[in-house]
Every structure is written in structure tokens, then in C-alpha cells.
Amino acid sequence: MKRVGLIYLFLILTITQSCRKEANLSDVIEQDSSVLFSSKISGESITRVSGNVWDTEDSLSIYMYETDKFTSGSILPQAFNKKFIASRGGNLRPADVNESFQFPKDKEVRYLAFHPFQRVPLLTRLLDIENQQNQSALDFLHGQSEAGPISKQDPVSLVFERLMVKFQITLSNTSRSNLKATLKQVPTRATYDLANKDLDLYDVLKDVEGFVSKNNKQETTVEWMLFPRQLPRSSQLVIHDANGGTYTWNIGEMNLPLMAGNRYQYELTLRGGEVLPEVKTSYLEVPRIEANANLEYKFRMTPDGSKRNFSMLYDKVNRLAHWVAYPLSRDYVGSQRRTNAWSYDPLFPQNTQPFLSSGFGITGIDRGHQLPSADRTKNFAENATTFYYTNMTAQESFLNQGLWMRLEDKIRNWTFQSAVDTMYVVTGAVIQTKDDQTIDYVMDRGRNRIARPKYYYKALAVKRGSNYYAIGFKMDNKYFPTDNNFMSHRLSVADLEELTGLTFFPGLDPSVKRTIDNQIWR
């Protein structure tokens, strides 16, 4: 610990002496030999946790090195920690002529980058997030050049990984000024080793005041950039307003695992000294939900981290997902065959999941996927995630293998039409209705009670041209004749909202959800 403290002191002294305004890029850089860079984040269009573009004058450290492994010995002379400036479009240029790289002769090289820039002589960075007032400066990113030959004519492509977590709250029922929100007992310091990508958190926990601002709707928002770590059970979010009111949310009791690169957004209502949270999302397909002790919301990326996979609201008592929301496009579909990789979901305790390695063992009941296996066929790993037990429900066999399957085939057909980029899908399993609050159960192979859905639904939204279109489907969990047409089970998304009590596609105009365009859905 003493050694880390000495590193910290040295870094602070070094940074302090180097805080000067850098000269603008000189016109004398020879474009035919100097190296320029483009950037992207793990295959996604979003470039920053703190926003969707680089901020003006964002600066990064870039290193050029030989061999496949980045070490202090593999870095080329005069290629150590060069300062580059980002444009809003993601292109990176040297801060001045002295910071530029020249393509080496007769060498195969690679590049490593880190945001933000620090003028330090070490490969270990000290990261401190106690002061949250400059969110961009806390958006730590690790970048590397893509594999493959590097052309002297084109910018080198750097692919960045997000190290941090964005945690954001919006206060829906207040316009209070002079508001202060504090996250209690969170880690605020860490070291990051550029060579082995090792983030080592200090054991000391501190209270961190969030950054308060107004969004484009003039709602009060508070943001934190946090290290990826499950919040301690003792963690609290405490809000103080100018009128002397204090509101406390025992957020640690949610057992929320903060995963690098993810945003966690909540809309809060302050009432009677309590905080009433509601999960928000930046993804169109995810419904708006309310927090519940028995219902747990999970968002997951694909196993390689290249794109989002699916989200679900999982019922830990009744052992099924109330809904699974996911995007569908050609990026998710390939030649991978059905893996049948039945397994427990690693994001949930096993004792909250059904045991379905060999089915329910009940004639006429299938392990019905909510996210279909056929919607994730890009590779083995992505398809295997559809066989998590949390994605399964007790579905009538004739429905699963008949009418429901034909609807899923049709959704893929709609998705792969030339004018469509992405289909947004919510699949739901309803175990209680307004008229029937009883829950039907079946037993799994472990003698656990599993809720049997009364009906299933699909909510779909798609953008064609500049317009969005939506449609819903509802089918009882029962046998349907083979000649039954799934289009006879359609309804508007607005009607599906009324039926389920959920808000689908919160970002869509309500008029879109009230209509069904027969030219689009045919």
C-alpha cells in the first residue's frame, strides 16, 4: 500500500508540472508518413460512457510497440505516451508536431491508447474518482489497434474498452435547486496497469457527491462515474434538498453488480423521506419497469462484449422471466446451429432458477425460449446464452412448436427485409391477470415450483425510413389448431400495455403504439 501511495505522489507531481496548454497541430506534419487514428468502442456506435461523441479537446495517451505483447521493453524509442486530441467524430490527431508518430520502416507495430492523457513515465495509472464534477475526465478507456495489416494510407483503427460504469438518476417529481445527492461507501481510488489491463481497487470506501445538472427536458439529473464492482450492502444513496428534506435509498440491498461499460439509469420519485426507484434504459426495446424485491432486472452484452444481447426482468420466487427484451438484426444471425447448451444463468443464484437440464418431465410441456435460439446464431457463445434456464418457461408443446414458432419465423422475415436495420422485440410470459390473480405451477426436475404462464405476448417496434411502426401479439398458453393464423392474435402495443400494465418502447410516440400499419406488418 505504501508503494502505491508513492506512485500516487509521483504521478500528482508529474501531472502538476505538465499542466500547460498544448500547441495546436502544426501544418508541417507530413500526411504520407505520420500516423493518424480513428476510434470506436467494442463495435458499438457510442463512443463514450459520458455521451455518444468525444468531447471537444479530449486528449489521449498513445504508445507504439513491437511484438504481440505490450510491455515497457516492447515500446519503440520516441513512441512512449504521445498526446493525441480527439475530434467529435472519433478521429485522433497529435497535439503538436512533437507528439506525432512516423510509420517505422521494416517493422510491424501495434498501438495502445488510454483516455485521459497523463504525462507520466510509468505504465501504471492512478485513478481517482472522488471529485465527480468533470465526468468526461473520469471516463477511463483502454484502446488497442485492431489485428491485421496497417496501411499507411488510412487512419489506424483503435478499439476502446470502457473501464467505468455510468450511474445516473433522474428526479421525475422535483425541480428542486441546490440539491445534493451522495453515494455512501463506494471505492474511489484504483491503479490500472496498461500492460496487463489489471484494475486494482483500494480497500478504502468513501462518500461521493454526484454531479448535478439538467437534462434536455429540464429534469434534475445526478451522475456518477464508478468503478465496476458490486456495491457494498451498506451503500446508500442520500439526497438533500434546499428545503431541508432528506431522502434515503438503501441501494446496497439491491445487490447490484456494476459491470464495466454499462449505464445504470433510474428515475426517482421522492416522497415522505423515501426514494421510489424506477429503472430507466437508453435502449428502445427495454420496457419501463418498477423495482421490486422479488423481481430483478439484468442487462447483458454478448459474450465477446461486442454488442448488447438481451435484458430481462426475472422473478426469483416464481422462477421465470416476466419479459425478455432484445434487438434483432443480421448482426445476430449466422450459421451456428442450435447448441442445446442447457445451463444455469451465471447472473442469478442457482437456487432462484428452474432445473431444466432434461426438461420438465411433463408430457405436453416444453422448455419454451423467450429469446429464440434461432435469433442468436452468430456463434456458439451467443446461441448458448439462449439456453440459460432463466430464458425458459413452461410452455404448451403444441404452442411452442406450432403457432408460436411460426410467429417467431415471421418476425425474422420482417427483420431481414431490405428497409429494416433493427427489430426491437419484447417477449413476455404473464402468470397473473387482472381477473385471475391465482398462479398455476408445475414442478421441475429438482422438485421446485415453477409458475406456468397464462399467456404469452410479443411487442415489436421497427424503424423504416424516418418512421417507427409497432405491433403486438397475445396467445394463451394452450393448444391451437394447426390452421390457426398468428395474425388473428395481433393487437396494438397500446392495447398490450393496457392488458399488461407495462410501458413498452418508452421512447416512442404514443400514437405509434396505438396504430397497426397493415402495409408494414403483412
Automatic annotation (TrEMBL):
<dbReference type="InterPro" id="IPR001604">
    <property type="entry name" value="Endo_G_ENPP1-like_dom"/>
</dbReference>
<dbReference type="InterPro" id="IPR044929">
    <property type="entry name" value="DNA/RNA_non-sp_Endonuclease_sf"/>
</dbReference>
<keyword id="KW-0255">Endonuclease</keyword>
<dbReference type="InterPro" id="IPR018524">
    <property type="entry name" value="DNA/RNA_endonuclease_AS"/>
</dbReference>
<dbReference type="InterPro" id="IPR040255">
    <property type="entry name" value="Non-specific_endonuclease"/>
</dbReference>
<dbReference type="Pfam" id="PF13149">
    <property type="entry name" value="Mfa_like_1"/>
</dbReference>
<keyword id="KW-0378">Hydrolase</keyword>
<feature type="domain" description="ENPP1-3/EXOG-like endonuclease/phosphodiesterase">
    <location>
        <begin position="307"/>
        <end position="511"/>
    </location>
</feature>
<feature type="domain" description="DNA/RNA non-specific endonuclease/pyrophosphatase/phosphodiesterase">
    <location>
        <begin position="306"/>
        <end position="511"/>
    </location>
</feature>
<keyword id="KW-0540">Nuclease</keyword>
<dbReference type="InterPro" id="IPR025049">
    <property type="entry name" value="Mfa-like_1"/>
</dbReference>
<dbReference type="InterPro" id="IPR042278">
    <property type="entry name" value="Mfa-like_1_N"/>
</dbReference>
<dbReference type="Pfam" id="PF01223">
    <property type="entry name" value="Endonuclease_NS"/>
</dbReference>
<comment type="similarity">
    <text>Belongs to the DNA/RNA non-specific endonuclease family.</text>
</comment>
<protein>
    <submittedName>
        <fullName>DNA/RNA non-specific endonuclease</fullName>
    </submittedName>
</protein>
<dbReference type="InterPro" id="IPR020821">
    <property type="entry name" value="ENPP1-3/EXOG-like_nuc-like"/>
</dbReference>
<keyword id="KW-0460">Magnesium</keyword>
<dbReference type="InterPro" id="IPR044925">
    <property type="entry name" value="His-Me_finger_sf"/>
</dbReference>
<keyword id="KW-0479">Metal-binding</keyword>
<dbReference type="GO" id="GO:0004519">
    <property type="term" value="F:endonuclease activity"/>
</dbReference>
